[in-house]
């Protein structure tokens, strides 16, 4: 993670955060937003929300990335990950509870951690991309280029939810050891972050059931595409229940949007949207047009050789990602009117891609922990 330019005065932010329980008018929240935009110059805070949470579950602090269905496809291909450029910040009133007794510096340390992982770090989105690739690979599935516009918006919701939870300390406390990251340390708040975590984890305000739920939403969004008729109505009911339970205004907005899109999933495919998705895979599609099936076959051969020589789990997952992209392209190609010889060759290469992807999973079986820890009853 990068270090913020030296010389920034944290005093205004520290005092504003510490006094939020008493001073959280629109002007007070706008002051925090303006300070954040001075501090994190590479990204823009769109708004700051202070939520009076008196009777719902503690969520601490939440940073929601600003993406929609138009950009979610970028994260399904094999292009390099990049940090997010826009975000919303929401602060739970329970974070200011006297029972926690967090200092101004500890609150500042938490804020630096939560936003820093969104603005400066790709670790969270990388974890989500690995989860998606592993999900497709384990189920012999691929992303459907003919997915509807509404499903794309659902996928955007799942990506936002998973990225937020993958990077947030509030989703990690109780599940894994957390140390102050290098970014927070570089800002001078390393010890403050660790003391804040100790206070939160030992408080009765924070009730953690030790279940890693960071990818639960992602799992059902990916799953519902394959059994939409069965899962859609129960999932809508579940989302409506979740809206009543969450204290987060930002999460409630996302749940409402997800419910609307899920209700509309029966809409016919939008051809314009399908073309837009295909354009997001343009680099791979263009290469396919030039080199044809033989090009993918050669890439598969090279990846199989590389697989035999590597022991690095991340390298193996990169091969899985390329397999997923090529499977998506070939599957779409097979939906066209092809000559018997071209169809036979495409099916042969597709079968080889599935086999290579399985070889990757077999090799990494003892090295990569399951990223989606949800098991569904039959």
Topology:
Blueprint: H1 11-18, H2 26-39, E1 44-51, E2 61-65, H3 69-72, E3 86-92, H4 104-119, H5 123-138, H6 149-167, H7 182-186, H8 190-201, H9 216-224, H10 228-245, H11 249-263, H12 271-280, H13 282-309, H14 313-334, H15 340-364
Parallel strand pairs: 1-3
Antiparallel strand pairs: 2-3
User: What is the first-to-last residue Cα distance?
Assistant: 43 Å
Q: Using DSSP, what is the number of strands? A: 3
Weakly predicted, low-confidence segments = 267-274, 366-378
Q: How does the overall form come out from the CA principal axes? A: elongated
- How many structural domains? 2
Order of strands, widest sheet:
1-3-2
Helix content: 55-70%
| Oligomer kind | single chain
- Total helices: the number is 15
What does this molecule look like?
The protein has 378 residues and is mainly alpha-helical. The chain folds into 2 domains: 11-263, no CATH class; 281-364. The protein has helices spanning 11-18, 26-39, 69-72, 104-119, 123-138, 149-167, 182-186, 190-201, 216-224, 228-245, 249-263, 271-280, 282-309, 313-334, 340-364; strands at residues 44-51, 61-65, 86-92. Strands 1-3-2 form a 3-stranded mixed β-sheet, sandwiched between helices. Helix 1 (11-18) runs antiparallel to helix 2 (26-39) and helix 13 packs across helix 15 (340-364).
Summarize this structure briefly.
This protein is mainly alpha-helical and 378 residues long. It has two domains: 11-263, no CATH class; 281-364. The chain is built from 15 helices and three strands.
């Amino acid at each position: 993670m990068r270090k913020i330019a030296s010389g920034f005065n944290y005093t205004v932010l520290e005092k504003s955060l510490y006094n939020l329980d008493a001073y959280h008018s629109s002007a007070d929240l706008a002051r925090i937003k303006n300070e954040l935009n001075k501090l994190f110059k590479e990204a823009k805070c769109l708004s700051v929300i202070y939520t009076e949470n008196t009777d719902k579950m503690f969520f601490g602090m939440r940073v929601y990335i600003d993406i929609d269905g138009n950009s979610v496809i970028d994260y399904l291909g094999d292009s390099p990950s990049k940090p997010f450029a826009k975000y919303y910040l929401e602060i739970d009133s329970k974070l200011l509870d006297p029972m926690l007794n967090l200092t101004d510096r500890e609150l500042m340390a938490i804020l630096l951690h939560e936003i820093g992982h969104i603005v400066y770090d790709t670790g969270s989105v990388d974890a989500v991309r690995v989860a998606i690739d592993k999900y497709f690979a384990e189920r012999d599935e691929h992303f459907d280029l003919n997915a509807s516009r509404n499903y794309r918006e659902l996928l955007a919701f799942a990506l936002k939810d998973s990225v937020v939870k993958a990077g947030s300390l509030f989703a990690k406390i109780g599940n894994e050891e957390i140390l102050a990251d290098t970014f927070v340390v570089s800002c001078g708040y390393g010890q403050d972050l660790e003391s804040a975590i100790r206070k939160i984890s030992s408080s009765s305000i924070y009730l953690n059931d030790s279940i890693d739920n960071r990818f639960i939403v992602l799992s059902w969004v990916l799953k519902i595409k394959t059994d939409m008729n069965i899962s859609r109505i129960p999932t809508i009911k579940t989302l409506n229940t979740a809206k009543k339970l969450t204290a987060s205004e930002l999460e409630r907005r996302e749940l409402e949007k997800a419910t609307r899109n899920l209700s509309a999933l029966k809409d016919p495919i939008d051809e314009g949207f399908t073309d837009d998705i295909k354009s997001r895979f343009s680099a791979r599609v263009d290469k396919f047009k030039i080199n044809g099936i033989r090009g993918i076959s050669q890439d598969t051969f090279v990846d199989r050789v590389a697989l035999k020589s590597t022991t690095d789990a991340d390298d193996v997952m990169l091969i899985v990602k390329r397999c997923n992209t090529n499977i998506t392209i070939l599957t779409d190609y097979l939906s066209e009117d092809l000559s018997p010889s071209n169809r036979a060759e495409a099916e042969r290469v597709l079968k080889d891609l599935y086999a290579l992807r399985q070889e990757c999973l077999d090799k990494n079986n003892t090295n990569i922990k399951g990223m989606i820890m949800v098991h569904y009853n039959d």
